[in-house]
Amino acid sequence: MSVKAAVTASSEFPSRELHSARASRHRAAPLRRALVTVATLASLCLAGHAGAQQVFAAASMKDALDDLCATYARQTGKKPVLVYGASSTLARQIEKGAPADVFISADQDWMDYAQKHDLIDASTRRNLLGNALVLIAPATTTGEIDLRPGTDLDARLGNGRLAMGDPAHVPAGLYGKAALEKLGVWPKVQGKVAAADNVRNALLLVARGEAPYGIVYKTDANAEKRVRIAGTFPADSHAPIVYPVALTKQANRTDAEPFYQFLQTPAAQATFERYGFGRP
Q: Rounded to 5, what percent of the chain is helix, strand, coil?
């Protein structure tokens, strides 16, 4: 996957204009740099491992999946190539011919998209993991927020921004918007959203102190010491967070299927749970 292709895919879903052009450019700069860095690393990895099984996975899986792939490499001598990003971007990249063998989405919708466009082997589709949605704040702050109907999140934000995955296409952003709508606070805060290209970039905005609050998965919050969980969204405020996995139609089954099966073993599930993931 080329850097140009990765950056182009992320720009297919432009964020809404939420503030002045000057502020927008200022806040978007770290996101663009992070995206280019990820795309560059992914491109280099793919170029150097053309024969390895190539796994396209939701950005929120990075820490757990890195750990599991290291274990898999020790056991088999084969190291998968991991490409992380928003599920929407990854699905679009596979559609454009990116060499993916395994696809793991952070929601059902983008796996549905891949299935509808005949990008995956539907017979291999499985629900792999579950997760929770949380509100985070910088670790240097204090105070909890009871996320219930009528919560005055707008007042808490003040002049600050609410970092979250782009609610137009990023799964974490879609879950976040649904939860805020259910709680009745979306109309008041939607104009303060700092929309990120994936959930890990939203996490970084809060970790760096560029946003006072953010919405991410519980596993993301667990992975970043510079943030704390300020509140947990009720499970019934959004659709269940499920990560489906499938082999792609173009997969090299000889290499990809053993790793696909490995992800579903009790040992792998225990590792995922250690990082905060739940059962689907």
A: 50, 20, 30
